[in-house]
Amino acid sequence: MNHHLPLVKNWPGPLAWRYSFDVAATEGEAPYFAVFEADFADAAAMAAAQASSHGQRVAADVVNYATGGLVVIYYPVQDGTG
Fold first, then answer.
1. 70 lies in a domain?
2. Which of 13, 21, 23, 62 has the largest count of CB atoms under 10 Å?
3. Residue 53 within any structural domain of the chain
4. Residue 37: how many other CB atoms lie within 10 Å
5. Could you read off the pLDDT of 13-27 as tens digits, one per residue?
6. Nearest-angstrom CA–CA distance, 38 and 17
7. Count of structural domains within the chain
């Protein structure tokens, strides 16, 4: 992650991002070793960030640490404060 997180840090597009290596399941063993989440202005901004040359470098680096593969989930976030 000494290489991947600096790539993410300098990735133009995300409004915010978070990650954790402390992933636990409520029962049994967690199927994941890490979680990463990024916020974008909208789906178009996310697509543009992923398609950028920097986004391509971020994606290409995933195989260097996620040797078991990865699951990507896209979802719009609803504001629940109202």
1. no
2. 13
3. yes
4. 12
5. 999 999 998 999 999
6. 4
7. 1
Residue 13 CA, distance from chain mean position: 12
Amino acid at 63: V
Joined tokens for residue 29: 């063993």
23 — alpha (psi -120 to 50), left (phi > 0) or beta?
beta
Contact 58, 7 (CB under 8 A): yes
| Span 54-77, pLDDT tens digits | 999 999 988 888 888 888 898 888
Residue 71 lies in a domain: no
CB 52 within 8 A of CB 12: yes
Residue 18: what residue type? Answer: R
- For the record, the structure tokens of 11 come out as 């990735």
User: Do the domain assignments include residue 79?
Assistant: no
Q: Which residues form the domain of 60?
A: 3-64
Tell me the two tokens of residue 78: 């609803």
